[in-house]
């Protein structure tokens, strides 16, 4: 994806772009709509959609990898007879977290944000 700076997407300039005189100039120039939406080319829009799809697929791939690791840990514990008797799934998750999977708790906290905010392109189009 192209990493060219686009000032209309800069959140630090939103105060400037929301001034009445600037909004009027941007509307007359064809840069924004009446509802303060930035007008972009079809190419820009397609690149952004592709970027969002890449983020989604990356998240799903990492999520599946984490789930497979959890299942692998569970099977190893089951083979070693280290699972408590009559434990429910929710209790098992908590028990796994307490028994040495503390990094998993951190991964769950960051979760989706880790993948979404690791990219450098703005996540919105309106001013």
TrEMBL record:
Protein name stated in the entry: Fibrous sheath-interacting protein 2-like
Lineage: Eukaryota, Metazoa, Chordata, Craniata, Vertebrata
Recorded name of the encoding gene: FSIP2
């Amino acid at each position: 994806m192209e990493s060219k700076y686009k000032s209309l997407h800069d959140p630090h300039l939103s105060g400037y772009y929301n001034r009445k005189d600037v909004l009027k100039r941007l509307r007359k120039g064809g840069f924004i709509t009446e509802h303060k939406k930035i007008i972009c080319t079809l190419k820009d829009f397609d690149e952004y959609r592709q970027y969002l799809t890449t983020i989604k697929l990356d998240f799903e791939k990492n999520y599946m990898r984490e789930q497979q690791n959890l299942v692998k840990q569970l099977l190893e514990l089951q083979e070693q007879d280290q699972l408590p008797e009559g434990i429910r799934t929710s209790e098992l998750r908590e028990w796994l977290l307490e028994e040495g999977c503390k990094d998993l708790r951190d991964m769950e906290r960051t979760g989706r944000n880790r993948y979404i905010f690791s990219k450098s392109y703005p996540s919105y189009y309106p001013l």
